[in-house]
Structure formats: structure tokens, C-alpha cells
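Hey L., structure's done. Input below.
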Amino acid sequence: MSDNSNSKKSTTDKSLFAQRFRGYFPVVIDVETAGFNAQTDALLEIAATTLSLDESTGKFSLDETIHFNVDPFEGANLEKAALEFTGIDPANPLRGAVDEKEAMTEIFKLVRKKMKAAGCQRAVMVAHNAAFDLGFVNAATERCLIKRSPFHPFVSFDTTTLSGLALGQTVLAKACAAAGIDFNNNEAHSALYDTEKTAELYCHIVNKWQQLGGWPLADITDEAE
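Output:
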């Protein structure tokens, strides 16, 4: 059997999910923070939404969401302007906040479970302005002395860029409106709400791309051979 045939067999053996993003498992993340500096400013909320793929249609949809309010790490900076913008009071006991390590450990546990079930090798973060969220997740992972994150350390799928291309909008609320996704500005800037809306937006764009003929690319590959 030729190397080319072996390659085709290997691809066929993979789940449709694992084939779609080169073995990456996309997970939608949103963080709410007490500033813009991931090294010094507190992580206050984090949410993650995993996705499912309908094998019969090839369409993505929301699967499971996990969310935590987070206690500021020791010595963390709390920018007044950031707290006023998000409306988060870190000292409010009703937040039911947990420490960073518990939040990150539980999210990573869920991501690894779903990633394994999909037959994927590595998770990739999906976020709106993804560099920001990835920076805070990487910084928290390092602070918590977690040996290995399931997420790629620098690759991400940015819905700001994707929605700018597909919908002509870069602001989350406006991109959702352009996609026909309900968006309540009164609930925005909550990690839980923003994560699920970002996940809806991401699925809309990926599914629309498939509908327009952008995926799968098997026929193009076969013709090239």
C-alpha cells in the first residue's frame, strides 16, 4: 500500500470531528477580569462551552457549558475602571467564587473528557478577541502550577476575525445581530452569557461556510491528485 493510501486510510479512521480542524478540538472560552494585564490583574470569571458535531449533517452546535466565579489570586491588581465596566464586586460573598486552581482544573477536566470522546489530540481556544482570553488562561495555568493545559499555547480561533470576514461586524453584539442571534446587552459582560453567545456565533459561521460549499474539501483534494 502506498504512503498516499495509508494517509487516506488514517484520515478515514478518524472521527468527522477530528478531521474538521486537523485534530484540534475547539472550545469556546470567555473571561471577565479586573484589568488588561494577564500577569498582574485578577481573573474574576471564566466559562467554557464545548461543541458537538452532528455526523449526519456535519453541523456544529453547543454541547456543554461550565462556569466559575473566581477569587482574585493573592496580590492581584483590581482596576476600578474594569470592575465598574463588568459590574463585578470581587468581595461579594454571594458570588460563590472558587480559587483559580479549582476553576482551571475543572474546566481542563471537562475539555480533556470531551476532546478524547471526539478523537481529537489538542484543544484550541475559540474566543472573541481570543488573544486576550488565551493570555489570561495561560497566566492562570502557570500561577496554579498546572503542568499541562489541554489548549494550544498560542493557536486560537478568533471570532472577531471570523465575524469580520463572514458578517462585516467585529463587535460581539453586532455580529450576533447580523447572524440573527438574539443578544441582550443587559446580560453581556458575564462570562457565562458571552461564552454561549460566542459559541452560537462560531457555530453559525462554521456551519454557514459548510453550507456554501467550503467544507469538506475532499473533492478538491482528489482532483489535485
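Strands lie at 24-33, 43-53, 60-69, 122-127, 151-158. Confidence is low (pLDDT under 50) at residues 1-11, 220-225.

-- N.
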